[in-house]
Amino acid sequence: MKVYIQKIYQTRYFWSHLVRAELKNKFRRSKLGILWTFMNPLLLTALMSTVFGVVFKMPFSDYAPYVLSGLIVWDLVSSSFIGGGYSILTAEQYIRQFNHPVLIYTLRSSLVSTITFLISIASLGLWVLFMNPENIFLGIVTLPLTTLLYFFLSWAVTTIAGFLNVKYRDYPQVIALVIQAVWYVSPVFFKKEMFSSSPALEAAFFFNPITHILNLVRNPFLNGTVPSSSDYIFTIVTILIMALLAGALYKKNHSKVIFYL
User: How many CB atoms lie within 10 A of CB 172?
Assistant: First the structure.
Protein backbone atom coordinates (compact mmCIF):
# COMPACT_ATOMS: atom_id res chain seq x y z
CA MET A 1 0.00 0.00 0.00
CA LYS A 2 2.81 2.42 0.90
CA VAL A 3 4.59 1.72 -2.39
CA TYR A 4 1.34 2.18 -4.33
CA ILE A 5 0.64 5.54 -2.67
CA GLN A 6 4.19 6.60 -3.50
CA LYS A 7 3.57 5.72 -7.16
CA ILE A 8 0.42 7.83 -7.16
CA TYR A 9 2.40 10.72 -5.70
CA GLN A 10 5.20 10.26 -8.22
CA THR A 11 2.71 10.54 -11.08
CA ARG A 12 1.07 13.67 -9.60
CA TYR A 13 2.08 15.88 -12.53
CA PHE A 14 0.49 13.46 -14.95
CA TRP A 15 -2.88 13.07 -13.23
CA SER A 16 -3.06 16.73 -12.24
CA HIS A 17 -2.64 17.53 -15.94
CA LEU A 18 -5.51 15.13 -16.71
CA VAL A 19 -7.69 16.94 -14.16
CA ARG A 20 -6.99 20.33 -15.74
CA ALA A 21 -7.57 18.93 -19.22
CA GLU A 22 -10.91 17.41 -18.21
CA LEU A 23 -12.05 20.65 -16.59
CA LYS A 24 -11.12 22.60 -19.72
CA ASN A 25 -12.89 20.05 -21.92
CA LYS A 26 -15.96 20.22 -19.68
CA PHE A 27 -16.44 23.91 -20.38
CA ARG A 28 -15.13 23.84 -23.95
CA ARG A 29 -17.15 25.87 -26.46
CA SER A 30 -19.54 26.99 -23.75
CA LYS A 31 -20.55 30.65 -23.81
CA LEU A 32 -20.93 30.76 -20.04
CA GLY A 33 -18.06 28.38 -19.31
CA ILE A 34 -17.44 27.82 -15.63
CA LEU A 35 -20.27 30.25 -14.83
CA TRP A 36 -22.73 27.60 -16.04
CA THR A 37 -21.73 25.31 -13.14
CA PHE A 38 -22.57 28.20 -10.82
CA MET A 39 -25.87 29.11 -12.50
CA ASN A 40 -27.23 25.66 -13.33
CA PRO A 41 -28.15 24.68 -9.73
CA LEU A 42 -29.72 28.13 -9.20
CA LEU A 43 -31.91 27.83 -12.29
CA LEU A 44 -32.89 24.24 -11.50
CA THR A 45 -33.65 25.25 -7.91
CA ALA A 46 -35.91 28.08 -9.09
CA LEU A 47 -37.85 25.63 -11.27
CA MET A 48 -38.16 22.85 -8.68
CA SER A 49 -38.92 25.18 -5.78
CA THR A 50 -41.69 26.88 -7.74
CA VAL A 51 -43.32 23.59 -8.77
CA PHE A 52 -42.82 21.54 -5.61
CA GLY A 53 -43.33 24.59 -3.38
CA VAL A 54 -46.84 24.89 -4.73
CA VAL A 55 -47.48 21.13 -4.45
CA PHE A 56 -46.11 20.88 -0.90
CA LYS A 57 -47.36 24.36 0.10
CA MET A 58 -43.96 25.64 1.21
CA PRO A 59 -42.72 29.23 1.00
CA PHE A 60 -40.14 29.78 -1.73
CA SER A 61 -37.66 31.59 0.56
CA ASP A 62 -37.55 28.60 2.93
CA TYR A 63 -37.75 25.77 0.42
CA ALA A 64 -35.38 27.08 -2.27
CA PRO A 65 -32.11 26.93 -0.25
CA TYR A 66 -33.09 23.45 0.95
CA VAL A 67 -33.49 22.27 -2.64
CA LEU A 68 -30.35 24.10 -3.77
CA SER A 69 -28.16 22.45 -1.12
CA GLY A 70 -29.67 19.06 -1.96
CA LEU A 71 -29.05 19.43 -5.68
CA ILE A 72 -25.42 20.53 -5.22
CA VAL A 73 -24.49 17.58 -3.01
CA TRP A 74 -26.59 15.12 -4.99
CA ASP A 75 -24.81 16.12 -8.18
CA LEU A 76 -21.50 15.11 -6.55
CA VAL A 77 -22.91 11.75 -5.43
CA SER A 78 -24.67 10.91 -8.69
CA SER A 79 -21.74 12.01 -10.87
CA SER A 80 -19.48 9.72 -8.86
CA PHE A 81 -21.78 6.74 -9.38
CA ILE A 82 -22.70 7.44 -13.01
CA GLY A 83 -19.92 9.57 -14.51
CA GLY A 84 -17.32 7.75 -12.42
CA GLY A 85 -18.18 4.58 -14.30
CA TYR A 86 -16.31 5.96 -17.31
CA SER A 87 -13.19 6.97 -15.36
CA ILE A 88 -11.22 3.88 -16.39
CA LEU A 89 -12.81 3.36 -19.79
CA THR A 90 -11.88 6.85 -20.98
CA ALA A 91 -8.29 6.26 -19.87
CA GLU A 92 -7.84 3.24 -22.13
CA GLN A 93 -5.16 4.87 -24.27
CA TYR A 94 -3.10 5.80 -21.19
CA ILE A 95 -3.51 2.39 -19.55
CA ARG A 96 -2.29 0.67 -22.70
CA GLN A 97 0.78 2.91 -22.97
CA PHE A 98 1.87 3.54 -19.37
CA ASN A 99 2.27 1.36 -16.32
CA HIS A 100 0.76 3.95 -13.98
CA PRO A 101 -1.46 3.05 -10.99
CA VAL A 102 -5.01 2.51 -12.26
CA LEU A 103 -6.42 4.48 -9.33
CA ILE A 104 -5.05 7.75 -10.70
CA TYR A 105 -7.80 7.67 -13.32
CA THR A 106 -10.56 7.34 -10.72
CA LEU A 107 -8.71 10.00 -8.71
CA ARG A 108 -8.91 12.30 -11.73
CA SER A 109 -12.69 11.92 -11.99
CA SER A 110 -13.28 12.37 -8.28
CA LEU A 111 -11.16 15.54 -8.23
CA VAL A 112 -13.17 16.96 -11.14
CA SER A 113 -16.41 16.16 -9.28
CA THR A 114 -15.09 17.75 -6.09
CA ILE A 115 -13.93 20.90 -7.87
CA THR A 116 -17.32 21.15 -9.58
CA PHE A 117 -18.95 20.85 -6.16
CA LEU A 118 -16.84 23.74 -4.84
CA ILE A 119 -17.88 25.91 -7.77
CA SER A 120 -21.54 25.01 -7.27
CA ILE A 121 -21.46 25.57 -3.51
CA ALA A 122 -20.58 29.19 -4.22
CA SER A 123 -24.18 29.65 -5.41
CA LEU A 124 -25.44 28.46 -2.03
CA GLY A 125 -22.93 30.68 -0.28
CA LEU A 126 -24.19 33.67 -2.28
CA TRP A 127 -27.80 32.87 -1.32
CA VAL A 128 -26.89 32.55 2.37
CA LEU A 129 -24.83 35.74 2.25
CA PHE A 130 -27.89 37.74 1.22
CA MET A 131 -30.67 35.86 3.03
CA ASN A 132 -28.96 34.49 6.19
CA PRO A 133 -25.61 36.27 6.50
CA GLU A 134 -25.21 35.11 10.10
CA ASN A 135 -24.70 31.53 8.83
CA ILE A 136 -22.02 32.24 6.24
CA PHE A 137 -19.07 32.19 8.65
CA LEU A 138 -19.92 28.76 10.08
CA GLY A 139 -20.58 27.45 6.57
CA ILE A 140 -17.14 28.55 5.38
CA VAL A 141 -15.40 27.22 8.51
CA THR A 142 -16.93 23.74 8.20
CA LEU A 143 -16.58 23.57 4.40
CA PRO A 144 -12.91 22.36 4.21
CA LEU A 145 -13.60 19.23 6.31
CA THR A 146 -16.88 18.62 4.49
CA THR A 147 -15.15 18.92 1.11
CA LEU A 148 -12.40 16.52 2.21
CA LEU A 149 -14.98 13.93 3.28
CA TYR A 150 -16.91 14.40 0.04
CA PHE A 151 -13.69 13.92 -1.94
CA PHE A 152 -12.88 10.61 -0.24
CA LEU A 153 -16.47 9.47 -0.70
CA SER A 154 -16.35 10.42 -4.37
CA TRP A 155 -13.02 8.67 -4.92
CA ALA A 156 -14.23 5.45 -3.31
CA VAL A 157 -17.52 5.48 -5.25
CA THR A 158 -15.81 6.41 -8.52
CA THR A 159 -13.34 3.53 -8.07
CA ILE A 160 -16.21 1.09 -7.52
CA ALA A 161 -18.08 2.47 -10.53
CA GLY A 162 -14.97 2.47 -12.72
CA PHE A 163 -14.13 -1.19 -12.13
CA LEU A 164 -17.74 -2.35 -12.40
CA ASN A 165 -18.32 -0.50 -15.65
CA VAL A 166 -15.12 -1.69 -17.29
CA LYS A 167 -16.08 -5.27 -16.44
CA TYR A 168 -19.86 -5.09 -16.92
CA ARG A 169 -20.81 -2.70 -19.73
CA ASP A 170 -24.50 -2.62 -18.71
CA TYR A 171 -23.51 -0.90 -15.45
CA PRO A 172 -24.59 2.62 -16.58
CA GLN A 173 -28.14 1.50 -17.35
CA VAL A 174 -28.52 -0.37 -14.07
CA ILE A 175 -26.96 2.30 -11.85
CA ALA A 176 -29.08 5.04 -13.47
CA LEU A 177 -32.23 3.23 -12.30
CA VAL A 178 -30.77 2.64 -8.83
CA ILE A 179 -29.72 6.29 -8.46
CA GLN A 180 -33.17 7.43 -9.56
CA ALA A 181 -34.79 5.22 -6.92
CA VAL A 182 -32.44 6.51 -4.20
CA TRP A 183 -33.24 10.10 -5.27
CA TYR A 184 -36.93 9.60 -4.41
CA VAL A 185 -36.32 8.03 -0.99
CA SER A 186 -33.70 10.59 0.08
CA PRO A 187 -34.24 14.12 1.43
CA VAL A 188 -32.74 15.81 -1.62
CA PHE A 189 -35.89 17.89 -2.09
CA PHE A 190 -38.22 16.11 0.38
CA LYS A 191 -38.08 17.78 3.80
CA LYS A 192 -37.90 15.90 7.10
CA GLU A 193 -41.56 16.60 7.86
CA MET A 194 -42.54 14.54 4.81
CA PHE A 195 -40.98 11.46 6.41
CA SER A 196 -42.90 11.81 9.69
CA SER A 197 -46.11 10.11 8.59
CA SER A 198 -44.95 6.74 9.95
CA PRO A 199 -42.22 5.37 12.24
CA ALA A 200 -40.86 3.31 9.34
CA LEU A 201 -40.34 6.43 7.20
CA GLU A 202 -38.72 8.27 10.12
CA ALA A 203 -36.32 5.37 10.61
CA ALA A 204 -35.58 5.29 6.88
CA PHE A 205 -34.87 9.02 7.00
CA PHE A 206 -32.44 8.73 9.93
CA PHE A 207 -30.58 5.64 8.71
CA ASN A 208 -30.27 6.84 5.12
CA PRO A 209 -26.59 7.87 4.70
CA ILE A 210 -27.63 10.54 2.18
CA THR A 211 -29.48 12.36 4.98
CA HIS A 212 -26.30 12.79 7.00
CA ILE A 213 -24.11 13.50 3.98
CA LEU A 214 -26.48 16.35 3.07
CA ASN A 215 -26.51 17.62 6.67
CA LEU A 216 -22.78 18.39 6.46
CA VAL A 217 -23.76 21.28 4.19
CA ARG A 218 -27.30 22.01 5.34
CA ASN A 219 -26.68 22.35 9.07
CA PRO A 220 -24.05 25.11 8.89
CA PHE A 221 -25.32 26.98 5.83
CA LEU A 222 -29.08 26.73 6.38
CA ASN A 223 -29.47 26.21 10.12
CA GLY A 224 -26.39 27.94 11.47
CA THR A 225 -25.36 24.86 13.48
CA VAL A 226 -22.35 22.56 13.38
CA PRO A 227 -23.10 19.13 11.83
CA SER A 228 -23.91 16.63 14.55
CA SER A 229 -21.63 13.79 15.58
CA SER A 230 -24.09 11.33 14.03
CA ASP A 231 -23.80 13.17 10.70
CA TYR A 232 -20.02 12.83 10.75
CA ILE A 233 -20.15 9.22 11.98
CA PHE A 234 -22.64 8.13 9.29
CA THR A 235 -20.61 9.89 6.60
CA ILE A 236 -17.27 8.43 7.72
CA VAL A 237 -18.74 4.92 8.07
CA THR A 238 -20.21 5.22 4.58
CA ILE A 239 -16.81 6.28 3.23
CA LEU A 240 -15.10 3.35 4.97
CA ILE A 241 -17.63 0.85 3.58
CA MET A 242 -17.23 2.25 0.08
CA ALA A 243 -13.44 2.28 0.45
CA LEU A 244 -13.43 -1.37 1.50
CA LEU A 245 -15.59 -2.30 -1.50
CA ALA A 246 -13.33 -0.26 -3.76
CA GLY A 247 -10.26 -1.96 -2.31
CA ALA A 248 -11.74 -5.41 -2.83
CA LEU A 249 -12.65 -4.62 -6.45
CA TYR A 250 -9.21 -3.16 -7.08
CA LYS A 251 -7.42 -6.17 -5.62
CA LYS A 252 -9.45 -8.59 -7.70
CA ASN A 253 -9.49 -6.70 -11.00
CA HIS A 254 -6.59 -4.25 -11.34
CA SER A 255 -4.32 -6.76 -13.08
CA LYS A 256 -7.13 -7.73 -15.49
CA VAL A 257 -8.22 -4.23 -16.50
CA ILE A 258 -6.17 -4.32 -19.70
CA PHE A 259 -8.11 -7.43 -20.79
CA TYR A 260 -11.49 -5.82 -20.04
CA LEU A 261 -10.78 -2.76 -22.19
Answer: 16
